[in-house]
Amino acid sequence: MTAPLPPSQQPASEHVPNDTPSTPPHGDAPGGPAAWPRRSPSPHPYAKDEEAAPDVATEVRQGAVVLLAVAVAGFALGVLWLWLAPRIPLVSDGTAVLLTDSEGEGAVGTDGVFLLLGLAFGAVSAPVVFLLQRRGGIAVVVGLALGGVLGSVLGWGTGTLLGPTHDVVARARAVGEGVTFDAPLELHAYGVLLAWPVAAMAVHLALTALFTPHDPEPEGDLTPYGPARHAPTPHGTTPPASTPHGSTPSGAAPPGPAPHGSTPPSGPGAPPSGSGA
């Protein structure tokens, strides 16, 4: 009859680990994890902003309203241009219509006044559109640009239509020989028609960069390889706790002095033996 071996010296075939979980799988027990209420996934951080943003149809309508409102302001531009533009005097000698001042700069002054008015209307219309349609989107910006071009064209047409007649010969015959009359209001540099939309785009871009809130930066681990991951431990086991160098693990008794008469351990780490008493 032999004595039973301790558990540490038993064969591997006799040691059967109990890896069967004590809890039933999900959905087996009526009150198990399958019956627990599941939390809905957290909403996207930008979901609120996306819901608040207008849809495509609303954005297009806002852009159309901006285009019409800015274009209508072109009539005011034409009236101001007619009022502020310098006059070019003409005179008839009975055979031809001549300039009273052949060295005058009335034509340059007419284009310059239209240019300054276009810049002023663009600098005013952009803040108004930005304050009223701050969340309009790209359609509002396109409507502002196209409205500036259309407003400049309407202002040009309004000024020339309300100004002196373009039939210079009939006007000279009506006023008589030697009588000074005003030349028709005309544009000679058609590039000034772009002053309004260019100024509006520049001011709107500056206001958007200064006063529009920026999107928050995403939060997360920015390390190259992500957060450190530990190797999984077997089921039912506890990972060993690391102990500092030179310390004794918990539950182990510190080494005491050797009994009298015993041989001290030998080795590289053994203390030197002293002389016996």
TrEMBL record:
Q: Which residues cross the membrane?
A: 64-84, 112-131, 138-157, 187-211
Keywords of this entry:
Membrane, Transmembrane, Transmembrane helix
Which residue ranges have biased composition labelled Low complexity? 25-37, 227-251
Superkingdom of source: Bacteria
Does this entry carry the keyword DNA-binding? Answer: no
Q: What ranges does the record give for the region Disordered, renumbered to this chain?
A: 1-54, 214-277
Keyword match Transmembrane: yes
Q: What is this protein called?
A: DUF2567 domain-containing protein
Q: Which organism is it from?
A: Streptomyces changanensis
